[in-house]
dihydrofolate reductase
Amino acid sequence: MKISLMAAKSENGVIGKGADIPWMVKGEQLLFKAITFNQWLLVGRKTFDSMGVLPNRKYAVITRSGLLSQNDNVLVFPSIEDALRELAQQTEHIIVAGGGEIFKAMINRADTLHLSTVHQNIDGDITFPQVPKDFKLVFEQYFESNINYTYQIWQRP
């Protein structure tokens, strides 16, 4: 199963402040919308609570506290390992979409990273892990917006 991580981070690595994304960049979320369309998303409970159920996506939510979902597109798991076992039976590709603990646990298992870097230093308490040295940058595009950002794709050879 192919594993991709997708995140937006500030220049100083911040991805969140509490349950919120501490910026609003016009256009950047369209990348998320396009890449995750009709895909399985692996997320932690706090990230899931903050984003809600987006249309045309399926979710594997990791939580220790339990979560009941009435939505057929949401599966709940007590651990990442349990989720990966089940998802291997259901799909050939998952996109890890946060939060910080899930990114840290999954970055060394990922095949591809989709990273948007917002060109500001932002105050926050949740950060994205360092890109491992064995990843290679394969695509990069700069965007001018209300806050400029760069979208990159990194892959393991």
User: Anything to note?
Assistant: The helical segments are 28-36, 45-51, 80-90, 100-106. The longest helix spans residues 80-90. Residues 104 and 129 are 6 Å apart (CA to CA).
